[in-house]
Design a protein that fits this description.
The complex is a heterodimer of chains A (318) and B (451).
Chain A (H helix, E strand, L loop, with lengths): L1 H16 L10 H34 L2 E2 L8 E2 L3 H8 L1 H32 L6 H13 L2 H11 L6 H6 L17 H26 L3 H9 L4 H29 L3 H6 L11 H10 L6 H30 L1
Antiparallel strand pairs in A: 1-2
Helix pairs in contact in A: 2-13, 4-8, 4-10, 5-8, 8-10, 10-13, 12-13
Chain B lengths: L1 H31 L13 H4 L6 E7 L6 H15 L3 E7 L2 H12 L7 E4 L2 H9 L7 H5 L9 H5 L2 E2 L2 E2 L2 E8 L1 E4 H6 L8 H13 L3 E3 L7 H24 L10 H15 L12 H9 L3 E5 L3 H9 L7 E4 L13 E12 L6 H11 L2 H9 L3 E2 L5 H4 L4 H12 L2 E4 L1 H4 L2 H16 L4 H12 L4
Parallel strand pairs in B: 1-2, 1-3, 8-9, 11-13
Antiparallel strand pairs in B: 3-11, 4-5, 6-11, 6-12, 7-9, 7-10
Helix pairs in contact in B: 1-3, 1-15, 10-11, 10-19, 11-20, 19-20
Chain lengths: 318, 451
């Protein structure tokens, strides 16, 4: 059925192009192009002003040395990038982004899939569960950071409270220790976003025709086989969307890590985005040029990864 | 009882205080003659000579957005407007950390404020070097303005011998302790660092956390490091390193020893569990609830304690940070600094008016009002005014007065980038990811301009 849809779509495409020429409104290819540009212009202008121009400006800024807020920027060519290549914190940040990406894909999407599948059964309290699992998504991230910092609070927090039932003198340095800080924040991130993907998958599952399941069950398929051979394949486009969102989200991720992991030493707490922000704005550092170089690196990584994901999912579709 | 006292303080400020302050302000202005209007011909800017319809607007930024200082600063601004009907003062307040960001961004080319709050030290020096703040050296010479200030406080507002700001608030860092907890243990304030370590062991045995510390923002832990370095090498070692004197630097033995001292405290389990992951407010709560015996923190703690747990105030005692055996400093140095000063932006369109506002904000009456809200003024004030300070603040002030030298906070004195490196390396020491020698080396490298 999935492939049928695709082939239908494909056969439709040439039909659109094959509209008879000499249509009253069409005055040749050139005029058509102009008209198209005119229609695109308002959106493009906004996009160019708020997205393309700042990106270009970041590229330009990354070639300057900007010693302090008050100083005039000074042209240094690619020196910022040479420094970046030797910057341990930058590489650790990149590694952390990779970890976050891997963990998000490996935990959030399967967990969301599981929850969505379970909630697709007509169980009691289904709406309640759905709301509860989705709730973290609607909470502001600042509130989540505060809430979870109390979960991880040494000795008095929820987590230590549970551990202390078994070991009364336990006290964990969860958000301060270089070994655990980011891992703890990653758990919170998964807790937050799983509900979002769950809702996405639930919508996908709801659109799968019930007859498919009826037919399969009549043929003696088990619940697992129904999931494996109906739900999963039918959800594939949805999973691809979720994975893309997940990948992009993990690359540009900022807020919970910035707010929760700041107690850990620098090389064990930064993501590319938090490192960039701290370089540019925190404590009047004013290293705008160097921060812009980090931003350019982040852009390059995100562009490459997102491009690969899009290319890969397109190729699979064909 | 203390709660009542706090209430009275608040009431005085709200009701009678502002009126009294305004009256005082008027006198101060007449006395110092800075409420000059009409402006002297020639020196007057276009804005001040314009008719009433086009009022000059001064923007005034500060971060003292809590009861007490807020009322005083806003009251002073309103009073300035009544004295200068052609001027409107637009007061904007910011949160501490956000302010640093905001100021650096606006100073870099946005819309800088006319009169603004500063901590002095390295941040102010950076602005002065970039030509963003007005040189006040000549202005403070006029009519004895400069003589109002405590010389030690004024030092924080200078760069290359020139005055770039005027201080109002002075603070210092003693070791605060919980009196009754010490009595229960029959402990006396430790004189030496070794005694301190031994005392930490005794508290741990009793199940009491020796020191409350919430090091998430990195500066609370740095106070220990700054003190230890000052005890080992004296403030001179720090100044020599900061000024890049030949042959001196942050690799000096004093800094390495300070790092070792931090490690010794961590290994003696002197701090609350997970101190790197909790913030200062959480640590303060533990201290105020009597779960920790000691707390190294600035004098601003008193106002916080008054607000959050007034009945703790009688228990709040302090002692000077212990000395180290063989150190260059025999306890004559106290860590402290200016916690509120005012600078005038170079971009200001009406510098005369802005300077007059800064002068009003640091009037002798303002100094006395400052005592009344429980804070130590950076100005000379009458003894009777100082008597109005809360008991713990007076005890800390006695330490400050007994000290021969003030060691500035590194993160306020050093240029921003080096200050950041200091906080990071100190945090690394606390977390055990950096060895004392490595931390010193990283600081030195950053000071030399690398990284």
């Amino acid at each position: 059925m999935g492939s049928a849809e695709v082939s239908e779509g494909r056969s439709e495409a040439p039909r659109r192009d094959a509209r008879p020429p000499g249509d009253g409104l069409r005055a040749g290819a050139q005029g058509d192009g102009l008209r198209a540009w005119l229609f695109v212009l308002p959106a493009l202008a906004i996009y160019a002003l708020f997205v393309l121009a700042p990106v270009a400006d970041s590229f330009r800024m990354s070639l300057f040395h900007w010693s302090s807020a008050g100083a005039t920027p000074e042209w240094v060519g690619t020196a910022n990038f040479a420094r970046l290549a030797r910057d341990g914190v930058f590489w650790s940040a990149l590694w952390h982004n990779g970890l976050l990406l891997g963990m998000s894909l490996a935990v959030q999407i399967p967990a969301a899939l599981l929850l969505a599948t379970l909630l697709s059964y007509p169980i009691r309290g289904r709406a309640l569960f759905r709301t509860v699992f989705f709730a973290p998504m609607v909470m502001p991230s600042v509130a989540i950071a505060v809430l979870w910092s109390y979960v991880y609070l040494p000795e008095q927090g929820l987590l230590d409270g549970v551990i202390r039932l078994f070991n009364a003198s336990f006290g964990g340095d969860w958000l301060g220790s270089p070994r655990t800080a980011l891992a703890c924040v990653f758990v919170t991130i998964c807790w937050r976003f799983t509900g979002f993907y769950m809702v996405l998958f639930m919508a996908g599952i709801a659109s799968i025709p019930e007859e498919l399941y009826d037919a399969a069950r009549m043929d003696g398929a088990s619940e697992w086989e129904c999931f494996r051979h109906i739900t999963l394949p039918m959800l594939r486009p949805m999973i691809a969307v979720a994975a893309t969102l997940c990948v992009i989200g993990s690359l540009k991720y900022f807020d919970l890590v910035y707010m929760m992991a700041q107690g850990a030493p620098e090389e064990s707490r930064e993501l590319l985005a938090t490192y960039m922000y701290r370089l540019a704005f925190e404590s009047g550092q004013g290293r705008f040029g160097y921060a812009a170089a980090v931003a350019v690196a982040l852009f390059a990584v995100a562009f490459a990864v997102a491009g690969t994901v899009t290319w890969w999912s397109r190729r699979r579709d064909e | 009882m203390m709660r009542g006292m706090a209430g009275v303080t608040a009431m005085t400020i709200r009701a009678g205080g502002v009126a009294a302050l305004c009256a005082g302000m008027a006198m101060a202005l007449c006395a110092t003659g800075c409420g000059r209007k009409p402006p002297p011909s020639g020196a007057g800017t276009t804005t001040t000579t314009m008719p009433m319809a086009t009022r000059t607007t001064l923007t005034f930024w500060h971060i003292m957005n809590y009861e007490g200082p807020r009322e005083l600063l806003n009251g002073a601004a309103r009073h300035f407007e009544t004295l200068n009907p052609d001027v409107k003062v637009n007061v904007q307040t910011f949160e501490n950390d956000a302010y640093k960001t905001k100021l650096s961004v606006e100073m870099a080319g946005g819309a800088p404020p006319d009169v603004f709050f500063t901590w002095g030290g390295g941040g102010l020096t950076a602005l002065a070097e970039a030509g963003r703040v007005l040189d006040l050296t000549e202005s403070v010479k006029a009519e004895g303005w400069g003589e109002r200030f405590l010389p030690a406080a004024m030092e924080f507002c200078k760069a290359q011998g020139r005055v770039y700001a005027v201080p109002l608030d002075l603070s210092c860092v003693p070791v605060w302790y919980n009196g009754p907890l010490f009595e229960q243990m029959q402990a006396t304030p430790p004189k030496s660092f070794d005694e301190l370590l031994a005392l930490c062991g005794r508290f741990r045995e009793r199940g009491v956390t020796p020191f409350a510390l919430g090091n998430q923002a990195q500066w609370p832990g740095a106070l220990f490091y700054v003190y230890l370095a000052a005890r080992w090498g004296g403030p001179e070692t720090f100044y020599a390193a900061a000024a890049r004197r030949p042959g001196r630097g942050f690799q000096d033995a004093a800094f390495v020893r300070a790092g070792e001292g931090v490690r010794a405290l961590v290994e003696a389990r002197a701090f609350s569990t997970g101190f790197n992951g909790i913030d200062d407010a959480q640590a303060r709560t533990r201290f105020l609830l009597g779960e920790s015996a000691m707390y190294v923190m600035g004098t601003w703690l008193v106002a916080r304690a008054q607000q959050e747990k007034p009945d703790f105030l009688p228990k709040l005692k302090c002692f000077p940070f212990p000395t180290v055996a063989g150190g260059a400093d025999a306890g004559d140095t106290v860590v402290g600094g200016v916690n509120c000063a005012f600078a005038v932006s170079r971009a200001c369109k009406a510098p005369e008016k802005a300077i007059a506002l800064a002068r009003l904000l640091t009037s002798p009456e303002m100094g006395e009002m400052w005592c009344r809200i429980g804070r130590i003024p950076a100005l000379h004030v009458r003894e009777e005014a100082l008597a109005e300070l809360p008991e713990p603040t007076r005890a800390a002030l006695a330490l400050l007065r007994a000290a021969k030298r003030i060691q500035p906070y590194y993160d306020q004195y050093l240029p921003p980038r080096l200050a950041e490196e200091h906080k990071k390396t100190t945090q690394g020491l606390f977390a055990g990811t950096l060895k004392p020698a490595e931390a010193a080396e990283r600081m030195e490298r950053a000071a030399q301009g690398g990284r």
